[in-house]
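INPUT
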Amino acid sequence: AQSVTQLGSHVSVSEGALVLLRCNYSSSVPPYLFWYVQYPNQGLQLLLKYTSAATLVKGINGFEAEFKKSETSFHLTKPSAHMSDAAEYFCAVGRGGNNRKLIWGLGTSLAVNP
Amino acid sequence: NAGVTQTPKFQVLKTGQSMTLQCAQDMNHNSMYWYRQDPGMGLRLIYYSASEGTTDKGEVPNGYNVSRLNKREFSLRLESAAPSQTSVYFCASIWQGNTDTQYFGPGTRLTVL
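OUTPUT
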């Protein structure tokens, strides 16, 4: 069975600092992995996704994530945080096959301090 | 292209009242979803529709019913609202494949007193 663990429900960084949001997954089949972002009072939108092509995936707004099979991780990074990055971030794993439902992590709230 | 739209945006109900949350997408997507979001609990799937005419239960279906009215519309009904159903409800859709991006609506904030 698949599962997703996001380490740290709250992360705080200074503006200009590295952003690192952690996601570990378990999956019995090759996973499809997603990061979504939710800005205050909005719906979720896709940041990036891994679908078994390149292991380093680049997304919108300067974010990227690296799929590491040996570590079962898909951590999200951004070299330099901006105030506008303050949001809730969700990692999700696809169940594979024809199952189009996702398993969601509990989310990480990112605060960016001036 | 409006994407995924949801109505209403806000709603307050009394315990025992019923209501229907509406969702529509104009992207010709095949699959649609209803989630609820509660603090510290992430997103939980209520119901899912793989295609027009089919629906399937998710993790937390109790107290809810759904209708996939046509390809565009997927409604969520609370027959007898309870305070435990106070939440933010999101509708989402994907075109077809299991690697496709889910597109989300703006959400409905429901309070049950």
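end of record. Chain A has a mean pLDDT of 92.
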